[in-house]
Amino acid sequence: MNSPIAQQAPAARQSASQQPSRQPSRPGPAGARTVRAALAFSLAALNLRIAVASLSPLLTEVEHDEHLSSFGGGALSTVPVVCFGAFAFLAPRLTRRFGPHHLLWYALLALTGGILLRSVPGVLALFGGTLIAGAAIAVGNVLMPQLIKHDFAGRAGLMLGCYSLALSGGAALAAGVVVPLESATGWGWRQVLALWAIPSLLAALAWLPELLTSDRRSPNRRSPSRPRQEPVKQGGADTAGALWRDRTAWAVTLYMGLQSLGYYAILAWLPTLLRDHGMSGSQAGWMLSFSSFPGMAASFAAPWLQQRLRPAYLAPLVAALLCATGFVGLLTSPVSGAYLWMTALGLGQGLAIGLALGYIVARSPDAHHTGRLSTMAQGIGYLIACLGPLGLGLLHSASGGWSLPVAVLLAVLVAQTVAAFGASRNRHVLAPS
């Protein structure tokens, strides 16, 4: 009686051992594709702030060589942020036409061309290249949350952290390297700025495999972000128009815009502020870069803090208090306490941008609504943000100092915190009250 069981047991064990040995071979390629897609996504995100951050430490030289006034320098710093807002509204139409994966590839190529054109002698090329680069980044800004919701739905928190980390890392790299690179090579600012076309071109090359896999994943290449055809009917002008009447959508939009206003104002004028107080140009550029390092850690942690800190408005409140500490420090002792103020400011702004991007994903029920909310929040938000660099420049020229501009940034933090109360509420846009 025992022998049949004994004879069957090895066969059963052999069958059981063979069964799982075939299964791990299946997720292997899929896992490798996911890692490759995540790396390509992060490299693309890395380039979405480099073109802006690399200009700021060299702005004084650019103004001198191109005979630009302080207003002209402020306008040059403002052009990309205006583009972030204005061209964001074209992203949904372009996404329907090309699909998000192909559109991101075209945007990276356009970014490469804009950076190269910006380095050609002449004011027209300078502003024209900046405009093209800003338009390309605007499209990328809108696409990234939508791609996270669609391609990395099971890892949205992790990819949001990687996205925010890449944005801060790109800004830190560009702001910290341009002045030392200029000194080490003996090149002018045009050649140094032109070098940043290399990482954007590498990102475009790394994204190429995603074009092929996106075609295979979706039979309709024009709208691969939609898993079924029925959302096409839902996702026309009705969804976009309804968002404009939704309080949660407006709260997310205002939070995105107000925190971006402070970020781009500091990005454009911090080196000049520190130079005016006696700091060297290379040290001032380094301080801007240094602030990005704590910002990188805070932005990466933002999705985790957003999910776990209660009440929900506590995380954006902490971000505002950290930024306020940095602004007050810049008013009182900008040079002697620079490292302390830049640490606080970096933590606050990094946490704020991570939360703003997280709200876009968390407050939308699916990838289609994420795309629509991303368009609204970043389109209107960056049009608000463009008031930062230009407004700070005008206030500095009118007052002859930095006390009034920094005081206005403190007032903006109050409005940003008010918007955070609505943006942090745990409800989807267009949900019934």
Précis, in short:
The protein is mostly helical and 433 residues long. It has helices at 2-22, 27-46, 50-53, 59-65, 70-86, 91-98, 100-118, 123-151, 156-185, 189-194, 197-217, 230-234, 237-243, 247-276, 281-308, 314-332, 338-362, 367-385, 387-399, 403-423. It is built from 20 helices and no strands.
SSE arrangement, N to C:
HHHHHHHHHHHHHHHHHHHH
- CATH topology type: Growth Hormone, Chain: A
Mean pLDDT across residues: 82
* Overall 3D shape: globular
Largest sheet: none
What's the helix count?
20
Number of strands: 0
As a percent range, the share of strand residues is under 5%
Low-confidence stretches: 1-27, 216-237
Task: Give a quick set of tags describing it.
Growth Hormone, Chain: A; mainly alpha; single chain; disordered N terminus; 433 residues; globular; 81% helix
Tell me what the structure shows.
By secondary structure, the chain is mostly helical. It has a single domain, classed as Growth Hormone, Chain: A. The chain has 20 helices and no strands. α8 packs antiparallel against α18 (367-385) and α14 (247-276) packs antiparallel against α15 (281-308). The longest helix has 30 residues, at 156-185. The chain is globular. Residues 1-27 and 216-237 have low confidence and may be disordered.
Draw up the topology in text.
Blueprint: H1 2-22, H2 27-46, H3 50-53, H4 59-65, H5 70-86, H6 91-98, H7 100-118, H8 123-151, H9 156-185, H10 189-194, H11 197-217, H12 230-234, H13 237-243, H14 247-276, H15 281-308, H16 314-332, H17 338-362, H18 367-385, H19 387-399, H20 403-423
